Amino acid sequence: MTRLYASVAGVAVAAMLGATAYVALKPSGDDVFAQCRAGSVAGGSGSIGGPFTLVSETGETVTDADVITRPSLLYFGYTFCPDVCPADNVRNAEAVDLLIEQGHKVQPVFISVDPERDTPEVMAEFTEYMHEDMLGLTGSPEQVKAASTAYRTFYRKQPSDDEFYLVDHSTFSYLVLPEHGFVEFFRREETPEAMAERIGCFVDAAGA
Fold first, then answer.
1. Angle at the Cα of 200 from the Cα atoms of 146 and 19, rounded to 5 degrees
2. 3-state class (DSSP) for residue 125
3. pTM
4. Where is the binding site, in residues?
5. Which residues are annotated as a binding site for Cu cation?
6. What's the mean pLDDT in 170-185?
7. Which residues pair with residue 167 across a beta bridge?
8. Could you give the domains of the chain?
């Protein structure tokens, strides 16, 4: 119970810290996705995302150009996370399945913030359980940090003397389109249905 409580408390703090990167503003009139947005990003959507180099669950070094070949839903977390990450990834997988029913093929992507334990093999096992199309990405600590910094996410390993440490982290999911980059974020309280509706709007507006 102590471990579970610590994880929930840590993620809650991380989510609040990560939330400082965003503000709810009316979209600008020249935004092609204006009708789809629930809010705007402080500094503009161009301030989120960008190039990254990571290692796929098959052990291959990949870049963002290799990964974002279709609309993608990115989530930063870790496989040892006892509750939040599994719940969020299940929610994302459900949204992806709803989008498939609408004729939209969106790839769920899970990026580890715990490269010490999340080897490609561990990531493959986790993503296979979550969704057949989910792609797991890990890498060196430097690669993971660079990707996290690009997406303005937060993570921090809790002090521990054993292998069962927890990692505080932010909990946003990010919609990224091949020709547009990052376009929208989703908080963890959003339902699969609400996510699918908004993502479908973005995909239609982009002609993807």
1. 40
2. helix
3. 0.85
4. 81, 85, 169
5. 81, 85, 169
6. 96
7. 157
8. 2-206 (3.40.30.10)
